[in-house]
Amino acid sequence: MAAAAAAVVAVALPAAPAAADDAPGERPDVPVGTWLAARTQPAVQLTSFTYTGTVAVPTSTINETAFSRLTQQAVEAVQAGKISSDERSIAKWLFQRIAADVDTYLTETTPERTVDAEVGGLCTGWWVTPDGYMVTGAHCVQVGETELSKLFAQQALAKFNEQDAKEIIAGLQGIEADEEILKLAQQIYVTFNTGHMKIRNLQQSLSVLQSLPGGGVDKTAKATPAELVSVGESYPGKDFALLKVNGQQNLPTVPLGEDADVRTGDTLYISGFPGLVTNTPFFSLESRLEPALTEGPYNARRTTQTGVPYIQTQAPSYHGNSGGPVFSKDGKVVGMLIAGTVSEGGEASESESFVLPVSIIKEKLGEKNVKPAQAVTTTRYNEALNDYFRNWFEEALPKFREVQALFPNHPYVAKYISDTQAAISAGKDESPKPILMWVLIAAGVLLAIVLVVVVVKLLGRRRRARADAPPYGAVPPPPWQQHQLPASHQHQAPVPPQAPYGGYNGSNYGYGPAGQYGQHGQHGQPYLGDQTRDVRYGQFSPPPDGHS
After folding, report:
1. Which one of 25, 186, 313, 510 has the fewest CB atoms closer than 10 angstroms to its CB?
2. Over the stretch 97-147, which tens digit does the pLDDT of each residue have?
């Protein structure tokens, strides 16, 4: 019975499912990219840097002396047949020469013109601690003076450039301001106004776009101010920056791996916010604020002339991806996307990207004594995702709800809760039965086996009792008379008269006269006719067939 019970328990109790993170690389039977994206998206955030200030540019005027010399040169070029003699061709030639050397032909004058402007950029960052430390690229939090001037010029000077271009065209009598002429004239003032622009009252701010309580990365998301804790040198230096968003707790994070986790030929996965999506008006705000995942092979390890290591990969990246985490197939950060190749025409190339290795990230975090950590939020979320992808919806639902309680601002958990409830309602749940249920089933099977064994033994005992019983109507001698006594002790005892059918006519065993049955030592009780007593076993058994 014990062996049978052990066998039943072994069959009925399957091994309990291991936690998703118990074994390295253990994951549901879904594509690596699907699994990675779901786990890492909550920790990957859109970041922004913003500069505000007052832009001032002087009014410009034509240097008459220089312009007269240029006009004479135009006449000579026409006479020499180098340019056509029509006024439009002459105007184009003049504007091209002025744009090539604006400070020779234009001079500053008054009044000064001013405009308030705001410029900035979008990048990617990721939480490294549950209390609000975020990693991103150095060039995602600050720009050089030259680059900043270009940004302000593009943002603030367009109106002035267009106005000045129309004025210089009006000064040339008889010239029609078609699109080509207007573009050439504007280029003159783009160059002049940018070169003479001044920025006053410059201020910088950093922020992280977070969702509001209730979850969902949509129009309810708001920019949360971030503090710049440390910043390195922009590419090709150690392009690293550390931000801190105060008042945070239970934030989802991503774990850091090691440089040795990946090598040439391995697949790398980049998460981030490509500008070609976040800056386009064609997509909804909600869809623009969801990270994109790209993948490609680890091509080679490079080192800059200043000794900074970088990983070259063919995983596609775009403007806006900068600062995004780069993952191994096991879901650990092995680097941060920093730069991409640019064609001669200034177009970004998808074919090559450069990744700052995780060892540099750890080095920089250590300088500020920041230790990467993982909150229960991430642990439960990852466990719930593994259950969800296995269709264990009943198992996943309470874990998703725990995540929502721990971090109400979680951008994705509310959607997973809704989808999980819908799957349960549709009967799609495939969760394993609870251990208690298996124990009860095993106990029931074991009890059934015990009952079968008992019944079999009882039936066997009754068969033996029938085989050994005396003929019906005869009573066996008492036990002490069933053994043969030695000859010296044997004596003849009077044989009692045989009672009629139905019993032994003696009082020692409770049987009365013919057909009667009584208590021990008593007579006269009627024999009911449906039972006989087997004296040896002390049990009742039914009379043989055919008797009543």
Report:
1. 25
2. 999 999 999 999 999 999 999 999 999 999 999 999 999 999 999 998 889
Q: CA dist 467 to 456, 470, 501, Å?
A: 17, 9, 21
Q: Using an 8 Å Cβ cutoff, are 319 and 296 in contact?
A: no
The reported pLDDT for the residue numbered 535 is: 34
Characterise 177 by phi-psi region: left (phi > 0), alpha (psi -120 to 50), beta (else): beta
User: CA 162 to CA 170: how far, in whole Å?
Assistant: 13
Cβ-based neighbour number of residue 267 at 10 Å:
17
Q: How far is CA 487 from CA 481, 490, 491, in A?
A: 14, 5, 8
Number of C-beta neighbours around residue 544 at 10 A? 12
Tokens of 542: 């039914």
Gyration radius from the chain CA atoms? 48
How far is C-alpha 523 from the geometric centre of its chain's CA atoms? 90
- CA dihedral angle for residue 235, residue 359, residue 120, residue 304, rounded to 10 degrees: 0
- Of the pLDDT bands very low, low, confident and very high (cuts 50, 70, 90), residue 22 is very low
Interstrand relation of 325-327 and 241-244 (parallel, antiparallel or unpaired): unpaired
SS (H, E, C) 316-370: CCCCCCCCCEEECCCCCEEEEEEEEEECCCCCEEEEEEEEEEHHHHHHHHHHCCC
Tokens 């998808």 correspond to 350
Specify the range with the lowest mean pLDDT, choosing from 167-181, 228-242, 260-274, 385-399. 167-181
Cβ atoms 135, 126 nearer than 8 A:
yes
Helix %, strand %, coil % for the chain, to 5? 35, 25, 40
Give per-residue pLDDT as tens, 457-490: 777 666 665 555 555 444 455 554 444 444 444 4
Residue 319 neighbours by CB distance under 10 Å: 16
pTM: 0.70
Q: Where are the beta strands (DSSP E) in 370-527?
A: none
Average pLDDT of the chain to the nearest whole number = 80
Residues 34, 57: Cα–Cα separation, whole Å: 52
Please return the burial class of 313, using the count of CB atoms within 10 Å of its CB with bins 0-12, 13-18 and 19+: buried
| Predicted local distance difference test score (pLDDT) of residue 409 | 86
Compute the half-sphere exposure of residue 76: CA atoms within 13 Å on the CB side of its CA. Answer: 6
pLDDT recorded at residue 218: 59
Read off the pLDDT band of 517 (50, 70, 90): very low
The structure tokens listed for 92 are 């184009």
Token pair 């920093």 is found at: 338
- Asked if residue 244 lies in contact with residue 226, where contact means CB atoms within 8 angstroms, the answer is yes
HSE, side-chain direction, 13 A CA sphere, residue 328: 20
